[in-house]
Design brief:
The structure holds two protein chains of two kinds.
Chain A (H helix, E strand, L loop, with lengths): L17 H9 L2 H4 L5 H7 L12 E5 L25 H14 L3 E5 L9 H11 L3 E5 L4 H4 L6 H7 L3 E5 L5 H8 L3 H14 L11 E5 L10 H16 L6 E3 L6 H9 L3 H10 L3 H5 L6 E4 L5 E2 L2 H5 L16 H6 L9 H4 L12
Parallel strand pairs in A: 1-2, 1-7, 2-3, 3-4, 4-5, 5-6
Antiparallel strand pairs in A: 7-8
Helix pairs in contact in A: 4-5
Chain B lengths: L20 H14 L7 H14 L3 H13 L4 H21 L1 H11 L2
Helix pairs in contact in B: 2-3, 2-4
The chains are: A alpha/beta, B mainly alpha.
The complex binds iron/sulfur cluster (SF4) (2 copies).
């Protein structure tokens, strides 16, 4: 049984402060040894300074509010977090999407659906005619309140690609990471999504699942695990989905807290560093993505956003950003980036090499 | 405290090449081949290795294949079932010799 936890912020934990997190990351023995600094690894792979290849994905974090309080959450999200995107900032996002010409809009949170302007925002993005809109739905939100029960229909109307976390195909592992009862509700929500056609062949309604380890170890091979997930979810719960993304936990926020408290931090960092893969480094998601915070600041990725590492450009807010500057920027990196380059690599869309 | 086993030594496994390079290289390349996906998946092989590790009661192997099985996507129940397979075979191997004991006893008694 997992005990209920609260956000770092509400517990006034020192790790709620991004400066402190960066200090912890920089004080590891590994970053003092130049060989182990992420920058030096990139240099050896001829990737330093890390440059974007374009802006294809416009990822927007519409707020830190969430109905869950997962133990590993890199956003430090929870019901107590009130930082959510205003309609004004959403309007700036709409302008930003047009200005960058990104073909994919990726909405995340917290639970993005809890933002009162979420549906309005999706409708407005739809009108822009982008190729793909992704919503990172935590599944349980669909059952959290009557007003969310018709989310599957809403997603369908806008041909949203739904991406949802399910750390394992059983309750023990899932609930240990995401909270008691989450597995059962997630399965129910997946069945509701299946009912309207999500995850079914020939509907074109895409439902992808995300696996991430429930502990201080690296994720397995994506393709092997996908087969296992498909078999187990189909035979035990009659659930269908399209693809499984296998994601590595980055050593930040609540996962960093877990690593430190469980005495796994040093070994985990050493493991990530040892598993550095240059071909994954060449494909890290920040090279074709930008990430927008709830208050309109621009970041290289959602992880940098949580560490408050804004893009390294003169104009780094949606209200005044310049496309050229973004395209020519050097991406801000730190030791947490090793989480993206370990083994087969990791991104919001799964493995990358 | 001095002990015969040191967890740090596991990382030094590769150092066996220091005293005999040729055989070590052959062993490690063979080892790598064995654990690749084949007729059995890498995941199934990891569970077999975990079970064998318990049969030979090698602390290094138990450490290594507990991590490896997790990283191949196995869960606690699967890993414990693998250890029960070890126990069943080991226990069964002892018990089946009971037949030998019975044979001898029957030979000697009225
Ligand atoms: S991991 Fe996702 S669902 Fe869990 S608390 Fe964080 S934002 Fe919410
Ligand atoms: S953490 Fe962000 S900036 Fe660092 S490599 Fe990953 S995507 Fe890029």
């Amino acid at each position: 049984m997992s005990e209920a936890i609260k956000s770092l912020r509400s517990r006034q934990n020192a790790l709620a402060d991004s400066f402190f997190q960066l200090e912890v990351l920089s004080k590891t023995t590994h970053s003092h040894d130049d060989q182990a600094s992420f920058a030096s690894k990139l240099r050896m792979s001829n990737l330093f300074p890390l440059k974007p290849t374009g802006i294809e994905i416009f990822q927007i974090n519409v707020g830190k509010m969430c109905n869950q309080v997962c133990k590993h959450c890199h956003v430090d999200a929870g019901p107590d977090r009130k930082e959510i995107m205003s309609r004004e900032t959403m309007k700036l996002c709409l302008e930003g999407i047009k200005k960058t010409g990104a073909h994919t809009v990726d909405l995340t949170g917290g639970a993005p659906e809890m933002n009162p302007d979420f549906r309005w925002f999706v409708e407005e993005i739809s009108k822009l005619g982008v190729e793909k809109i992704i919503v990172r739905c935590n599944l349980t939100i669909i059952l959290a309140n009557k007003k969310y029960h018709n989310l599957p229909e809403f997603f369908k109307t806008h041909r949203i690609e739904v991406v949802s976390s399910l750390p394992y195909f059983n309750a023990i592992r899932t609930d240990a990471q995401r909270g008691d009862g989450v597995f059962e509700k997630s399965i129910k929500a997946l069945q509701m999504l299946n009912e309207v056609g999500y995850g079914k062949s020939d509907t074109g309604l895409i439902l992808n699942l995300v696996y991430n380890p429930s502990g201080a170890f690296l994720p397995p091979s994506q393709s092997a695990l996908e087969v296992e997930f498909k078999n187990k979810l189909k035979s035990n719960y009659n659930v269908d989905f399209n693809s499984l993304f296998s994601i590595t936990n980055l050593p930040i926020s609540r996962f960093l807290e877990y690593l430190i408290d469980s005495n796994n931090y040093d070994a985990y960092m050493a493991k990530l560093i040892e598993a550095y893969n240059p071909s994954a480094a060449a494909n890290v998601m920040c090279r074709n993505t930008i990430s927008i915070g709830w208050d309109g600041w621009i970041y290289d990725c959602d992880f940098n956003q949580m560490l408050d590492l804004k893009v390294n450009t003169k104009h780094n807010h949606l209200s005044d950003f310049v496309n050229e500057e973004l395209l020519n920027r050097s991406i801000v990196i730190n030791q947490h980036c090793y989480g993206c380059t370990a083994g087969a690599g990791s991104s919001c869309g799964g493995t990358i090499s | 405290m001095k002990t015969y086993y040191n967890p740090e030594d596991l990382k030094k496994f590769g150092n066996i090449a220091e005293f005999e390079k040729n055989l070590a290289n052959k062993f490690f390349s063979y080892y790598g081949e064995v654990f690749k996906d084949g007729a059995l998946t890498a995941r199934e092989k990891s569970l077999i290795a975990l079970a064998v590790a318990h049969a030979i009661q090698c602390p290094y192997c138990i450490d290594a294949y507990s991590v490896d099985a997790l990283e191949k996507g196995c869960d606690e129940a699967q890993m414990m079932e693998a250890v029960h397979v070890t126990a069943a075979i080991r226990g069964g191997a002892s018990l089946v010799h009971g037949v030998q004991m019975m044979n001898k006893v029957k030979e000697l008694t009225m």
